[in-house]
Amino acid sequence: MVRASVIGCGNMGSALVRGLSESGTHAVTACDVDPAALETVEDCAETTTDPSVAAEADVVVVAIKPGLVVDVVDDLDLSPDQILVSFAAGVPTSVLEPHTDATLVRAMPNLAAETQNMAAAVTGETIPEEVTTLLGAVGEFVEVEESQMDIATAVNGSGPAFVFYLIGAMRDAGVDAGLEPDDAEVLAAQTFKGAAETVLRSERSIEELIDAVCSPKGTTIEGMEVLWDSTADEAVADAVGAAEQRSAELAADIDDD
Ligand SMILES: NC(=O)C1=CN([C@@H]2O[C@H](COP(=O)(O)OP(=O)(O)OC[C@H]3O[C@@H](n4cnc5c(N)ncnc54)[C@H](OP(=O)(O)O)[C@@H]3O)[C@@H](O)[C@H]2O)C=CC1
Ligand SMILES: O=C(O)[C@@H]1CCC=N1
User: Fold this and answer.
1) pLDDT (tens digit, 9 = 90+) per residue, 24-54?
2) Cα–Cα distance for residue pair 154/56, rounded to 1 Å
3) Which stretches make up the Pyrroline-5-carboxylate reductase catalytic N-terminal domain (predicted)?
Protein backbone atom coordinates (compact mmCIF):
# COMPACT_ATOMS: atom_id res chain seq x y z
CA MET A 1 0.00 0.00 0.00
CA VAL A 2 1.28 3.49 -0.89
CA ARG A 3 2.30 5.51 2.14
CA ALA A 4 0.91 9.04 1.88
CA SER A 5 1.18 11.86 4.34
CA VAL A 6 -0.86 15.02 4.49
CA ILE A 7 0.80 18.02 6.08
CA GLY A 8 -1.80 20.55 7.17
CA CYS A 9 -5.14 19.07 8.22
CA GLY A 10 -7.35 22.12 8.08
CA ASN A 11 -10.25 22.38 5.66
CA MET A 12 -8.53 20.89 2.61
CA GLY A 13 -6.06 18.48 4.18
CA SER A 14 -8.66 16.92 6.45
CA ALA A 15 -11.04 16.47 3.49
CA LEU A 16 -8.29 14.57 1.67
CA VAL A 17 -7.45 12.44 4.69
CA ARG A 18 -11.12 11.47 5.12
CA GLY A 19 -11.54 10.71 1.43
CA LEU A 20 -8.39 8.58 1.31
CA SER A 21 -9.50 6.75 4.42
CA GLU A 22 -12.80 5.85 2.70
CA SER A 23 -10.96 4.68 -0.41
CA GLY A 24 -8.69 2.35 1.55
CA THR A 25 -5.98 2.78 -1.08
CA HIS A 26 -3.37 4.50 1.09
CA ALA A 27 -1.76 4.24 4.49
CA VAL A 28 -2.17 7.85 5.60
CA THR A 29 -0.17 9.87 8.08
CA ALA A 30 -1.76 13.21 9.00
CA CYS A 31 0.40 16.02 10.34
CA ASP A 32 -0.58 19.41 11.74
CA VAL A 33 0.83 21.93 14.20
CA ASP A 34 -2.66 22.28 15.65
CA PRO A 35 -3.68 19.31 17.86
CA ALA A 36 -7.35 20.28 17.38
CA ALA A 37 -6.98 19.86 13.61
CA LEU A 38 -5.40 16.44 14.12
CA GLU A 39 -8.23 15.41 16.42
CA THR A 40 -10.67 15.83 13.52
CA VAL A 41 -8.85 13.13 11.53
CA GLU A 42 -7.60 10.85 14.29
CA ASP A 43 -10.20 8.20 13.40
CA CYS A 44 -9.05 7.92 9.79
CA ALA A 45 -5.24 8.28 9.90
CA GLU A 46 -2.10 7.85 11.91
CA THR A 47 -1.71 11.35 13.31
CA THR A 48 1.42 13.24 14.28
CA THR A 49 2.60 16.72 15.11
CA ASP A 50 6.11 15.77 14.01
CA PRO A 51 6.82 16.73 10.35
CA SER A 52 9.84 14.39 10.22
CA VAL A 53 7.45 11.44 10.71
CA ALA A 54 5.17 12.72 7.95
CA ALA A 55 8.20 13.19 5.70
CA GLU A 56 8.81 9.41 5.64
CA ALA A 57 5.95 8.75 3.19
CA ASP A 58 6.21 7.88 -0.53
CA VAL A 59 3.87 10.76 -1.38
CA VAL A 60 3.85 13.89 0.79
CA VAL A 61 0.96 16.31 0.28
CA VAL A 62 1.30 19.83 1.63
CA ALA A 63 -2.06 21.46 2.37
CA ILE A 64 -0.98 24.54 4.26
CA LYS A 65 -1.46 28.23 3.56
CA PRO A 66 0.39 29.49 0.47
CA GLY A 67 2.58 31.90 2.47
CA LEU A 68 3.95 29.08 4.66
CA VAL A 69 4.55 26.41 2.08
CA VAL A 70 8.11 27.32 1.02
CA ASP A 71 9.45 27.17 4.59
CA VAL A 72 7.63 23.93 5.34
CA VAL A 73 8.90 22.26 2.14
CA ASP A 74 12.44 23.42 2.97
CA ASP A 75 12.25 21.81 6.40
CA LEU A 76 10.86 18.51 5.07
CA ASP A 77 14.13 17.74 3.30
CA LEU A 78 12.61 15.08 1.02
CA SER A 79 14.74 12.75 -1.13
CA PRO A 80 14.65 12.28 -4.94
CA ASP A 81 12.71 9.00 -4.64
CA GLN A 82 9.82 10.76 -2.91
CA ILE A 83 6.94 12.73 -4.44
CA LEU A 84 5.81 16.09 -3.14
CA VAL A 85 2.33 17.33 -4.03
CA SER A 86 1.54 20.98 -3.34
CA PHE A 87 -2.08 22.04 -2.97
CA ALA A 88 -1.17 25.67 -2.29
CA ALA A 89 -3.14 28.17 -4.36
CA GLY A 90 -1.00 30.53 -6.41
CA VAL A 91 2.36 28.94 -5.61
CA PRO A 92 4.13 28.15 -8.89
CA THR A 93 6.19 25.00 -9.32
CA SER A 94 9.21 27.18 -10.12
CA VAL A 95 9.04 28.70 -6.64
CA LEU A 96 8.95 25.35 -4.82
CA GLU A 97 11.34 23.38 -7.04
CA PRO A 98 14.58 24.87 -5.61
CA HIS A 99 13.42 23.90 -2.11
CA THR A 100 13.03 20.15 -2.60
CA ASP A 101 14.85 17.16 -4.12
CA ALA A 102 11.55 15.26 -4.44
CA THR A 103 9.56 14.97 -7.67
CA LEU A 104 7.27 17.98 -7.42
CA VAL A 105 3.68 18.09 -8.60
CA ARG A 106 1.35 21.06 -8.24
CA ALA A 107 -2.34 20.26 -7.92
CA MET A 108 -5.49 22.20 -7.19
CA PRO A 109 -7.98 19.99 -5.36
CA ASN A 110 -11.31 20.82 -3.78
CA LEU A 111 -13.23 20.06 -0.62
CA ALA A 112 -15.26 17.28 -2.23
CA ALA A 113 -12.24 15.01 -1.70
CA GLU A 114 -14.03 14.15 1.52
CA THR A 115 -16.88 12.44 -0.34
CA GLN A 116 -14.59 11.19 -3.11
CA ASN A 117 -16.19 13.65 -5.53
CA MET A 118 -13.21 15.97 -5.85
CA ALA A 119 -12.48 17.82 -9.07
CA ALA A 120 -8.76 18.48 -9.29
CA ALA A 121 -6.42 20.10 -11.76
CA VAL A 122 -2.85 18.85 -11.82
CA THR A 123 0.22 20.11 -13.61
CA GLY A 124 3.76 18.90 -14.06
CA GLU A 125 6.15 17.68 -16.73
CA THR A 126 5.15 14.11 -16.04
CA ILE A 127 2.59 13.20 -13.44
CA PRO A 128 3.79 10.12 -11.54
CA GLU A 129 1.35 7.23 -11.26
CA GLU A 130 1.41 7.61 -7.48
CA VAL A 131 -0.16 11.04 -7.88
CA THR A 132 -2.80 10.02 -10.41
CA THR A 133 -3.69 7.11 -8.14
CA LEU A 134 -4.01 9.40 -5.12
CA LEU A 135 -6.11 12.00 -6.92
CA GLY A 136 -8.19 9.31 -8.62
CA ALA A 137 -8.91 7.68 -5.26
CA VAL A 138 -10.88 10.74 -4.16
CA GLY A 139 -12.42 11.97 -7.41
CA GLU A 140 -11.66 13.11 -10.93
CA PHE A 141 -8.68 15.08 -12.18
CA VAL A 142 -7.57 16.77 -15.36
CA GLU A 143 -4.03 17.59 -16.43
CA VAL A 144 -3.51 21.25 -17.34
CA GLU A 145 -0.64 23.54 -18.25
CA GLU A 146 0.88 25.45 -15.35
CA SER A 147 -0.28 28.67 -17.05
CA GLN A 148 -3.87 27.40 -16.63
CA MET A 149 -3.58 26.82 -12.88
CA ASP A 150 -4.98 30.23 -11.86
CA ILE A 151 -8.18 29.71 -13.82
CA ALA A 152 -8.41 26.07 -12.71
CA THR A 153 -8.02 27.26 -9.11
CA ALA A 154 -10.99 29.57 -9.62
CA VAL A 155 -13.17 26.97 -11.38
CA ASN A 156 -12.59 23.84 -9.31
CA GLY A 157 -10.73 25.05 -6.19
CA SER A 158 -12.95 28.00 -5.33
CA GLY A 159 -15.86 26.58 -7.33
CA PRO A 160 -17.51 24.68 -4.47
CA ALA A 161 -18.12 27.98 -2.66
CA PHE A 162 -19.76 29.45 -5.74
CA VAL A 163 -21.95 26.38 -6.08
CA PHE A 164 -22.85 26.46 -2.35
CA TYR A 165 -23.97 30.05 -2.94
CA LEU A 166 -26.18 29.03 -5.86
CA ILE A 167 -27.66 26.12 -3.90
CA GLY A 168 -28.42 28.59 -1.11
CA ALA A 169 -30.14 30.94 -3.53
CA MET A 170 -32.27 28.08 -4.88
CA ARG A 171 -33.11 26.97 -1.31
CA ASP A 172 -34.05 30.52 -0.28
CA ALA A 173 -36.34 30.90 -3.27
CA GLY A 174 -38.11 27.70 -2.23
CA VAL A 175 -38.40 28.82 1.38
CA ASP A 176 -39.74 32.24 0.37
CA ALA A 177 -42.47 30.48 -1.59
CA GLY A 178 -43.50 28.23 1.30
CA LEU A 179 -41.20 25.18 1.50
CA GLU A 180 -39.76 24.12 4.86
CA PRO A 181 -36.06 25.18 5.03
CA ASP A 182 -34.78 21.61 5.48
CA ASP A 183 -36.93 20.32 2.64
CA ALA A 184 -35.88 23.19 0.38
CA GLU A 185 -32.19 22.54 1.11
CA VAL A 186 -32.50 18.83 0.28
CA LEU A 187 -34.43 19.57 -2.90
CA ALA A 188 -31.97 22.26 -4.02
CA ALA A 189 -28.79 20.34 -3.14
CA GLN A 190 -29.98 17.02 -4.56
CA THR A 191 -31.04 18.83 -7.74
CA PHE A 192 -27.52 20.26 -8.17
CA LYS A 193 -26.02 16.83 -7.45
CA GLY A 194 -28.33 15.10 -9.93
CA ALA A 195 -27.82 17.75 -12.60
CA ALA A 196 -24.02 17.55 -12.19
CA GLU A 197 -24.11 13.75 -12.42
CA THR A 198 -26.25 14.03 -15.56
CA VAL A 199 -23.76 16.40 -17.21
CA LEU A 200 -20.88 14.05 -16.36
CA ARG A 201 -22.61 10.91 -17.62
CA SER A 202 -24.60 12.22 -20.58
CA GLU A 203 -23.26 12.55 -24.09
CA ARG A 204 -25.66 15.46 -24.64
CA SER A 205 -24.41 19.04 -24.44
CA ILE A 206 -25.51 21.29 -21.59
CA GLU A 207 -27.71 23.21 -24.05
CA GLU A 208 -29.39 19.94 -25.13
CA LEU A 209 -29.93 18.97 -21.50
CA ILE A 210 -31.60 22.34 -20.78
CA ASP A 211 -33.80 21.72 -23.78
CA ALA A 212 -34.72 18.28 -22.42
CA VAL A 213 -36.08 19.84 -19.21
CA CYS A 214 -38.05 22.55 -21.02
CA SER A 215 -41.42 21.07 -21.97
CA PRO A 216 -43.19 23.07 -24.68
CA LYS A 217 -45.33 25.76 -23.02
CA GLY A 218 -44.27 24.27 -19.65
CA THR A 219 -42.77 25.68 -16.47
CA THR A 220 -39.03 25.50 -17.12
CA ILE A 221 -39.00 27.62 -20.24
CA GLU A 222 -40.60 30.45 -18.25
CA GLY A 223 -37.72 30.32 -15.74
CA MET A 224 -35.08 29.89 -18.44
CA GLU A 225 -36.35 33.01 -20.25
CA VAL A 226 -35.69 34.94 -17.03
CA LEU A 227 -32.15 33.53 -16.76
CA TRP A 228 -31.34 34.10 -20.45
CA ASP A 229 -32.53 37.71 -20.14
CA SER A 230 -30.48 38.26 -16.97
CA THR A 231 -26.79 38.83 -16.35
CA ALA A 232 -26.51 35.73 -14.15
CA ASP A 233 -23.86 34.25 -16.47
CA GLU A 234 -21.85 37.47 -16.23
CA ALA A 235 -22.00 37.40 -12.41
CA VAL A 236 -20.65 33.83 -12.43
CA ALA A 237 -17.91 34.81 -14.90
CA ASP A 238 -17.00 37.82 -12.72
CA ALA A 239 -16.75 35.65 -9.59
CA VAL A 240 -14.52 33.14 -11.39
CA GLY A 241 -12.44 36.01 -12.82
CA ALA A 242 -11.94 37.61 -9.40
CA ALA A 243 -10.74 34.30 -7.93
CA GLU A 244 -8.43 33.74 -10.92
CA GLN A 245 -6.92 37.19 -10.46
CA ARG A 246 -6.35 36.55 -6.75
CA SER A 247 -4.55 33.31 -7.54
CA ALA A 248 -2.20 35.25 -9.83
CA GLU A 249 -1.69 37.88 -7.12
CA LEU A 250 -0.75 35.19 -4.61
CA ALA A 251 1.97 34.04 -7.00
CA ALA A 252 3.25 37.61 -7.35
CA ASP A 253 3.26 38.04 -3.53
CA ILE A 254 5.29 34.85 -3.10
CA ASP A 255 7.73 35.96 -5.81
CA ASP A 256 8.21 39.29 -4.00
CA ASP A 257 9.14 37.54 -0.70
N1 LIG B 1 -9.97 25.24 1.60
C2 LIG B 1 -10.13 24.83 0.35
O3 LIG B 1 -11.25 24.57 -0.12
C4 LIG B 1 -8.94 24.63 -0.54
C5 LIG B 1 -7.67 24.96 -0.13
N6 LIG B 1 -6.60 24.78 -0.97
C7 LIG B 1 -5.24 25.07 -0.54
O8 LIG B 1 -4.95 24.21 0.55
C9 LIG B 1 -4.11 24.87 1.48
C10 LIG B 1 -4.74 24.78 2.86
O11 LIG B 1 -5.96 25.49 2.85
P12 LIG B 1 -7.01 25.26 4.03
O13 LIG B 1 -7.12 23.82 4.34
O14 LIG B 1 -8.22 26.01 3.64
O15 LIG B 1 -6.25 26.01 5.22
P16 LIG B 1 -6.45 25.77 6.79
O17 LIG B 1 -5.92 26.98 7.46
O18 LIG B 1 -7.85 25.33 7.05
O19 LIG B 1 -5.49 24.51 7.10
C20 LIG B 1 -4.12 24.61 7.18
C21 LIG B 1 -3.66 23.80 8.38
O22 LIG B 1 -2.23 23.70 8.34
C23 LIG B 1 -1.76 23.92 9.66
N24 LIG B 1 -0.35 24.29 9.61
C25 LIG B 1 0.21 25.51 9.56
N26 LIG B 1 1.57 25.41 9.54
C27 LIG B 1 1.85 24.08 9.56
C28 LIG B 1 3.06 23.33 9.58
N29 LIG B 1 4.24 23.93 9.57
N30 LIG B 1 2.99 21.99 9.63
C31 LIG B 1 1.80 21.36 9.68
N32 LIG B 1 0.61 22.02 9.69
C33 LIG B 1 0.64 23.36 9.62
C34 LIG B 1 -2.68 25.00 10.17
O35 LIG B 1 -2.59 25.14 11.58
P36 LIG B 1 -2.85 26.61 12.20
O37 LIG B 1 -4.26 26.95 11.85
O38 LIG B 1 -2.60 26.43 13.66
O39 LIG B 1 -1.86 27.52 11.52
C40 LIG B 1 -4.03 24.46 9.70
O41 LIG B 1 -4.55 23.50 10.60
C42 LIG B 1 -3.92 26.31 0.98
O43 LIG B 1 -2.69 26.43 0.37
C44 LIG B 1 -5.06 26.50 -0.02
O45 LIG B 1 -4.67 27.35 -1.06
C46 LIG B 1 -6.76 24.25 -2.23
C47 LIG B 1 -7.99 23.93 -2.68
C48 LIG B 1 -9.20 24.08 -1.89
O1 LIG C 1 -9.72 30.44 -1.19
C2 LIG C 1 -8.60 29.94 -1.37
O3 LIG C 1 -7.59 30.65 -1.53
C4 LIG C 1 -8.45 28.44 -1.43
C5 LIG C 1 -7.86 27.99 -2.75
C6 LIG C 1 -9.01 27.45 -3.52
C7 LIG C 1 -10.07 27.28 -2.52
N8 LIG C 1 -9.73 27.78 -1.38
Assistant:
1) 999 999 999 999 999 999 999 999 999 999 9
2) 32
3) 6-90
